[in-house]
Amino acid sequence: MEKLKEHLKRKNIEISAKRYGIDALGAMAQGLFASLLIGTIISTIGEQAGIELLVSIGAFAKDATGAAMAISIGFALQCPPLVLFSLAAVGVAANKLGAAGGPLAVLVVSIFAAEFGKLVSKETKIDIIVTPFVTVFVGAGLSIWWAPVIGKAAGAVGGAIMWATELQPFFMGIVVSVIVGIALTLPISSAAICAALGLTGLAGGAALAGCCAQMVGFAVLSFRENRLGGLFAQGLGTSMLQMGNIIKNPKIWFPAILSSAVIGPIATCVFRLEMNGAAVASGMGTCGLVGQIGVYTGWVTDVASGAKTAITLFDWMGMLLVCFILPAVLTWLFGLFFRWIGWIGENDLKLDL
Asked: Which are the contacts of 139, defined by CB distance < 8 A and separation ≥ 6?
């Protein structure tokens, strides 16, 4: 056993929840951003502006989704070059065979392929053949074996959440908004979770509402401590910046969580805000305004398919209120109360910017 541990350490193979559940998952989300998400945005701009070149460029970016995710995961796992590059084929296979649950299939399969590739890397004189062969063989083999099952399971879970949200928009609006919002602030990837489960529709709208409540909420709540730098860093970056302060005083999280619990059902019941763009955008909140761009691309797609007659003023009002105004106002009001009762003290929200 000791020899095995020493070998794994020498090969930089660390079997841990952090490396696989945080590092790899977060990296997968970046791969999604750099392929599917940016491709969708470019294609939408091209379609709206009538520029065929942009439509084609966007399509190429979207076609690279599986490879981009797998390589991103390999980068997070600190794979040597031959393993890292070989993961491109693994990602294509897992994403294609995983269908709707492709991102989750890519995550699971790429981790196994990467670690097996690392085990044999630089162990033979024909490393240039052995390492790519093992990585691709293990990855593609597991994709054929596992990806369809993983994809169906992820699709079933995501479908159940979306079905439940349609059936009980008030209750599920609260649940989805709060849980995904919390995931966004934790050092895990809410975007990758939404992508893996394929959360779109009303459930996607609730997820977006929860993420916005956290990002815009913390940006406004901590304005007196962090001023404009904190406003932009959290409002357009990530509320994860507050994680260190949350560990010190978990009560500072309450205003944003309560806001997400209120805004979620408003999004689902009042405005019927749906995320019918890329599922990854459901977990992005206001980060680079990607969540809002995702909603807009969904509107455009729905109008083109006939599912929606037009983009209305009510749609824009809903997005504005759910994504920006309500998170700012509600979190600020809840924050005033918690400051008044002494649960949030001076500089509890201070960031080192």
From this structure: 70, 86, 87, 89, 90, 93, 94, 109, 110, 112, 113
Total number of domains constituting the chain: 2
> Which residues partner with 115 through β-bridges?
none
According to the model, what pLDDT value does residue 348 have? 93
Quote the pTM value: 0.83
Residues of the chain short of pLDDT 70, as ranges, are 1, 353
SS (H, E, C) 188-251: CCHHHHHHHHCCCHHHHHHHHHHHHHHHHHHHHHCHHHHHHHHHHHHHCCCHHHHHHHHHHCHH
pLDDT at res. 235: 92
- Boundary of a domain, candidates 100, 125, 156: 156
Strand pairing partners for 201? 275
* Token pair 């009042």 in the structure block, residue: 270
Spatial distance between the Cα atoms of 209 and 52, rounded to a whole number of angstroms: 33
pLDDT in tens, 166-177: 999 999 999 999
Would you state the torsion angle of the CA atoms of residues 64, 106, 293, 258, taken in this order, to the nearest 10 degrees?
Answer: -170
For the stretch 16-31, pLDDT in tens is 888 998 899 888 888 9
Q: Measure the CA–CA gap between 263 and 269, rounded to whole angstroms.
A: 10
In angstroms, the Cα distances linking 288 to 65, 112, 211, 352 are 20, 32, 13, 21
> Are residue 331 and residue 184 in the same domain, yes or no?
yes
259 found inside a domain:
yes
Domain that holds residue 42: 2-156
13 and 119 share a domain? yes
Which positions ≥6 away from 208 have C-beta within 8 Å?
A: 267, 273, 275, 281, 282, 283, 284, 285, 291, 294, 295, 322, 323
DSSP state of 63: H
Residue that is last in its domain, among 133, 156, 179: 156
